[in-house]
Write a structure and sequence with these properties.
124 residues; alpha+beta; globular; single chain; 4 helices; 6 strands; YjbR/MT2646/Rv2570-like; 31% helix; 27% strand; Aspartate Aminotransferase, domain 1
Length: 124
């Protein structure tokens, strides 16, 4: 998954906002809370190999994913059950999308019911 594909997919989710911060990282939020990040590492690396995708996950997913090759606890966010994909082949694009959707859902469900309705996550 390229950074553009990552951004396009995240943009398709309900009630999201996007900012560029932390040294050009693509940060995606729902209701003002971060659910996924894509960072570029290394100027000489090809885009597919030079990006790191991080996302929030459930405790069980965190345990399973961090045992797989190419996936590590996300720096600075591991205590909150975030993982980081270190290599392009660590996970298929379809699996990345599924985990990003779940990250979005996990964070959105932590928002107040009022805010969930305001952003269109749940019906009024």
């Amino acid at each position: 998954m390229t950074r553009d594909e990552f951004d396009q997919y995240c943009a398709s989710l309900v009630g999201v906002s996007h900012v560029i911060q932390w040294g050009n990282a693509s940060v995606w939020k729902v209701g003002g809370k971060i659910f996924a990040i894509c960072s570029n590492w290394g100027e000489d690396a090809p885009e597919k190999d030079g990006i790191k995708i991080s996302f929030k996950c459930s405790e069980l997913s965190y345990q399973i994913l961090t045992e797989q090759a190419g996936i590590i606890p996300a720096p600075y966010l591991a205590r909150a059950k975030w993982v980081q994909l270190e290599t392009a082949g660590a996970m298929s694009d379809e699996d990345i999308k599924a985990y990003i959707s779940e990250a979005h859902r996990i964070i959105a469900l932590k928002l107040s019911k009022k805010l969930q309705r305001e952003i269109g996550f749940v019906d009024a």
